[in-house]
Write a structure and sequence with these properties.
Elements (H helix, E strand, L loop, with lengths): L2 E8 L5 H14 L5 E8 L5 E3 L20 E5 L6 E4 L6 E4 L2 E4 L10 H9 L8 H8 L1 H11 L6 E5 H6 L1 H12 L3 E5 L9 E3 L2 H14 L2 E6 L4 E11 L2 E10 L8 H6 L12 E2 L6 H17 L4 E10 L4 E8 L17 H20 L9 H6 L7
Parallel strand pairs: 1-2, 1-7
Antiparallel strand pairs: 2-3, 3-4, 4-5, 5-6, 8-11, 9-10, 9-11, 12-13, 12-15, 13-14, 15-16
């Protein structure tokens, strides 16, 4: 019997359009003999829709929520895993067996939608609530890395209001600790949106202004001048994870920006269109270091599904730093698994299997604890702490 496989995408995020591309790639490669694909599109206002038409990326050039075959829907949040039609009748549309979130950024990669799936008791393929939330916020993520002893670049962070109230003080704090050059990043965005390099005070002010438009928390990080970037994907569960081939993105600029990731030559092929060396041009010892560290990070942050971990190598000192974890990477990093003869279709199968395994693991835990507290209250007894 086919499984009802829901794919969520879109959402209230600046990475909305990139999410559509990622979801389209996955839905087009999923084995239709195994799965009934249920596209669930979340528009920029947070409304949910489904319908077979939503598997065509061209629909989103001018999305019409009233088009024939498109239905507005919702999940109840109760443990019945049912997708309902929105409206007075609230007609049940289908039971969802597994969800693969294909959502980047806020409201999709930050633990919020994962919490809904937990409440609905639906197996899902991404990292859980905690791992997603930690990896979404670059400031908290770096703090977690430091706590676990993972190597990171020096940084400082600020609230948006700090910058608006006293930009000179913010700049001085950054300059005193980090000097130049630095990278300025919104704490809760991906796809390099809002990220800028600063080599002097004027550039720093500009970069802070840009970042402040996208987030109230801003990270300023020491830049590596003689840099090599490498990425490694990890798939599985904390107890049973594997690493992919290591890639080296090839960029024509000082850092890999949004335009190079997604807009090169006006094409929309997701992350696969990016120039890269596979495998990365690094020593065997460094490759082993990246793979070991990737597995350690995956386990420490209690991740699951498929992630991509991005690293920076300071070529002057041959030092490796972990940059960030993408819990739902662009294009699901399928191009990193192809060299291991894992097709995109097989990758989808792996994600479904991981989702179901984690749900079985969750159900091994007790969620009820019998006590006589209510009986004591009913008897009028005082309850101490």
């Amino acid at each position: 019997m086919k499984k009802n496989l829901a794919v969520t995408f879109g959402g209230r995020t600046v990475e909305h359009d990139i999410s559509i591309i990622t979801a389209n790639q996955l839905m087009s490669h999923a084995d239709k003999n195994k799965y009934n694909i249920i596209p669930i599109y979340i528009d920029r206002d947070g409304k949910w829709y489904t319908g077979d038409k939503l598997m065509d990326v061209a629909v989103f050039k001018r999305f019409d929520p009233n088009a024939k075959g498109v239905k507005r829907v919702f999940l109840s949040g109760s443990a019945d895993a049912t997708l309902y039609e929105y409206g007075r009748k609230q007609k049940a549309i289908c039971q969802i067996d597994v969800v693969i979130p294909a959502m980047h950024g806020l409201h999709g990669e930050d633990g919020t939608i994962q919490g809904l799936f937990e409440l609905s008791d639906i197996p899902y393929s991404s990292a859980g609530v905690t791992g997603s939330a930690v990896c979404m916020d670059k400031i908290i993520m770096k703090s977690a890395f430091i706590g676990f002893g993972f190597p990171v670049l020096d940084s400082v962070f600020f609230e948006r209001d700090e910058f608006y109230s006293d930009s000179d003080a913010v700049c001085e704090k950054s300059e005193n600790k980090l000097g130049y050059p630095v990278f300025v990043k919104p704490a809760n965005l991906g796809s390099s949106i809002g990220v800028n390099r600063a080599d002097n005070r004027d550039a720093l002010v500009y970069a802070l202004e840009v970042a402040a438009k996208y987030d109230r928390r801003i990270l300023v990080e020491k830049a590596v001048t003689d840099i090599k970037e490498v990425n490694c994907s990890v798939m599985g569960t904390a107890a049973n994870a594997k690493t992919s081939v290591i890639e080296q993105p090839v960029t024509a600029s000082q850092f890999l920006g949004f335009e190079e990731k997604y807009l090169n030559n006006g094409k929309s092929k997701g992350m696969k269109s990016l120039g890269r060396k596979i495998p990365a041009d690094i020593s065997d010892d460094m490759a082993q270091h990246v793979r070991r560290l990737s597995l350690d990070i995956f386990k420490a942050l209690d991740l699951k599904g498929l992630v991509r971990i991005d690293y920076i190598i300071d070529q002057t000192t041959d030092t490796l730093y972990v940059n960030e974890v993408n819990t739902i990477p662009g294009s699901f990093a399928f191009y990193l698994w192809e060299p291991a003869n894992v097709s995109f279709s097989a990758l989808v199968d792996h994600l479904v299997t991981i989702s179901e395994q984690q749900m079985r693991e969750k159900r091994k835990s007790e969620f009820a604890f019998d006590s006589n507290v209510l009986q004591k209250v009913a008897s009028g007894l005082k309850i101490g702490k």
